[in-house]
């Protein structure tokens, strides 16, 4: 029996790529640097904001100082423009409401920085009770390290065998495997079905409602 569903955020609950792309391109433009397409950003995201910025910068500028400076500018811009293009994927609000009605506990584990993760969840899912909402924080390793899942299990008191982890990327599937929890890869996000398969997804779903059969 599944008592807890842990969701990735970007590419799983929310289509955030528009605001991520616009924000990163804005801070690149301020420096007179080349910008990137939405398709590029689908490949850049998934490993935290630092890696997003690093991938967006020209290789010669990927120094610790420049990456950190651009990251700071990105965070400030993104927090101010976080909901201009972002939307929940079709069927996600209904899925979360039904899971809540059924008594399945809900949590979020994201590589997006904590303040951004909390703001997005509060903005788009104000009526959903998430037990735990965790994003990237200092001194906590990013996914695919399973530390964030471990934190959620400790906070909720739910055993690993009673968890379904839902995400759109190979990083998510690797996180679930490392944490010893069942995984479900979603095909509506930023990565491909092939990546999910190659990363060991236990289940793959094409629509949010299909998750109800796994929970």
Shape: globular
Following the backbone from N to C, one meets helices and strands in this order, namely: EEHHHHEHEHEHEHEHE
Strand content bin: 15-25%
Sheet with most strands: strand arrangement: 5-4-1-6-7-8
The SS-based structural class is alpha/beta
Helix count, per DSSP? Answer: 9
Q: Report the strand count.
A: 8
Radius of gyration: 17 Å
Uncertain residue segments: none
Q: Largest sheet, if any?
A: 6 strands, parallel
Average of per-residue pLDDT values: 96
Separation of termini?
A: 7 Å
Level of helix content?
Answer: 40-55%
What does this structure look like?
This protein is α/β, with parallel strands linked by helices and 215 residues long. 44% of the residues lie in helices and 16% in strands. The chain has a six-stranded parallel β-sheet, sandwiched between helices. Helix 1 (17-30) crosses helix 4 (64-80) and helix 3 crosses helix 4 (64-80). The mean pLDDT is 96.
């Amino acid at each position: 029996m599944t008592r807890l569903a842990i969701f990735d955020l970007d590419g799983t609950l929310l289509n955030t790529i528009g605001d991520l792309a616009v924000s990163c391109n804005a801070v690149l433009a301020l420096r007179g640097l080349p910008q990137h397409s939405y398709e590029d950003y689908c490949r850049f995201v998934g490993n935290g904001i630092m890696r997003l910025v690093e991938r967006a910068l020209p290789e010669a500028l990927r120094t610790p100082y420049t990456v950190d400076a651009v990251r700071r500018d990105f965070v400030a811009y993104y927090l101010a423009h976080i909901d201009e293009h972002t939307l929940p994927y079709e069927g996600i609000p209904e899925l979360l409401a039904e899971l809540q009605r059924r008594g399945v506990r809900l949590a979020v584990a994201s590589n997006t920085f904590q303040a951004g993760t909390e703001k997005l969840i509060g903005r788009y899912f104000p009526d959903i009770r998430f037990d735990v909402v965790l994003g990237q924080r200092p001194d906590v390793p990013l996914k695919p390290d399973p530390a964030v899942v471990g934190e959620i299990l400790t906070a909720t008191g739910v055993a690993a065998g009673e968890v379904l982890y839902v995400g759109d990327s190979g990083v998510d599937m690797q996180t679930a495997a490392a944490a010893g929890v069942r995984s479900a890869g979603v095909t509506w996000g930023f990565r491909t079905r092939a990546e999910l398969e190659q990363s060991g997804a236990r289940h793959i779903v094409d629509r949010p409602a299909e998750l109800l059969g796994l929970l």
